[in-house]
Amino acid sequence: MDIIRTFEFGGFSCTVAFYPREEILPLDAELLVADLNTASLVLVPEDIISVTLTPGEKEKQWPAVDSILKLAMEKGLARDSLMVAVGGGVVTDMTAFAASLYMRGCRLILIPTSLLAMVDASFGGKTGIDAGPYKNTIGSFYPAAEVRICPEFLKTLSDREFLNGLAEVLKTAIIADPDMLELMRDKKEDILKRDSDIMAQLIRRCLLVKGSLVEEDLREKGRRALLNLGHTFGHALEAVTDFEWSHGAAVAWGMGKALDASVKIGLAESAWSKKIKDLMIDYGFQLEAFVDKDEIIKAMSMDKKKMRGKLRFILPVSPGDVRIKILEEDLIRSLL
Q1: Of 55, 73, 147, 272, which one has the fewest beta carbons inside 10 Å?
Q2: Same structural domain, 165 and 149
Q3: CA-CA distance, 37 to 263, in Å (whole number)?
Q4: Catalytic residue check, 231
Q5: 179-221 pLDDT tens trace
């Protein structure tokens, strides 16, 4: 075990650490949640109750959480019982939401298996489900006691799923770690080969950036909102395409639009914006989408990050400088 750090999130302690695969499952787990893609990644003792969910964002709805809660009640789990999730962001989000509800909060450990879940989704306390096509509109803040990371799991991902996670790595680098941007530029081949040392470094750096923001602002009343770079545009694209665009791909597209907006209102220099977009394209991200503007605007109106009815966008200005701005609908339309 290699402990990255123990974070304090608004009264919740969360320890994040690297684990070897054979030691990653906690010995006192009582209920394990995975999906059909991740259930085989850990050896589950016979005395652990398990739930195997159908994979995919479309399944991130109340019936899946209900199935976890009903099994927990049926098997007599108590408030001090331990739920464990093994999976990507969909699995960790739903299991954490179930744990936050069960007995008003039972013990929780998350074992992310995708890059996106390792660097973002499983860490920081956001839990939830979608309401139809609208992302994460039902949920809670409930940080896990531990997040256990095994970089070996990255070898099991498809190229598409691995790229999904790299979008969140790029996002984190733009927000607060300019040196990581240069690392991604200089070590692109090693990153795409999923070199263990490089990937462990990227994961560690992302968690330290996100952890510092969440320690300051668990419930997203202030600076934690910066982590939503690309997400207001991206969540809308996911919704209108019925999740044909994966989360990471949609966020990358959304970051491109945020860069365009920042240049258009005179915040970011066009040369720097182009440099970032060229890096995204170099990694294989698609920065154009042919979608109905009205549908995108409608989907954005359901965004949970609104304040006093106004949509807030996170706009990159320069390395390590991102700002929260309200954009008018005419400007948004001109970007689509």
Answers
A1: 73
A2: no
A3: 41
A4: yes
A5: 999 999 999 999 999 999 999 999 999 999 999 999 999 999 9
**Among this protein's residues, is 275 annotated catalytic?**
no
The set of residues, in sequence order, having a beta carbon less than 8 Å from that of 316 and lying 6+ positions away, is 174, 175, 229, 255, 258, 259, 262, 268, 273, 276, 322
Nearest of 237, 64, 54, 252 to residue 160 by alpha carbon: 252
Domain final residue pick, 141, 156, 171: 156
Of 130, 156, 182, the residue at which a domain comes to its end is 156
Place of tokens 């159908």: 54
Report whether 145 contacts 107 (CB < 8 A): yes
CATH number of 42's domain: 3.40.50.1970
Known catalytic residue at 104? yes
Tell me: the pLDDT tens digits for 72-106? 999 999 999 999 999 999 999 999 999 999 999 99
Query: Among this protein's residues, is 308 annotated catalytic?
Result: no
**DSSP assigned state of 119:** I
Catalytic residue among 107, 235, 238, 257: 235
In terms of residue numbers, what domain contains 149?
2-156
Beta strands (DSSP E) in the chain are 2-9, 12-18, 31-35, 49-53, 82-87, 107-112, 126-131, 134-141, 146-149, 312-318, 321-326
Q: Which residues pair with residue 8 across a beta bridge?
A: 13
Residues 187 and 290 in one domain: yes
Query: Do 151 and 163 belong together in one domain?
Result: no
**Cα 291 to the chain's mean position, in Å?**
24
Which of 168, 205, 238, 257 is labelled catalytic? 168
Q: Do 132 and 181 belong together in one domain?
A: no
Whether pTM exceeds 0.90: yes
Please compute the mean of the pLDDT values over residues 56-72 and round it to a whole number: 96
Q: What is the DSSP secondary-structure string of 287-309?
A: ------HHHHHHHHTT-TT-BTT
Q: Are 86 and 67 contacting, i.e. CB atoms less than 8 angstroms apart?
A: no
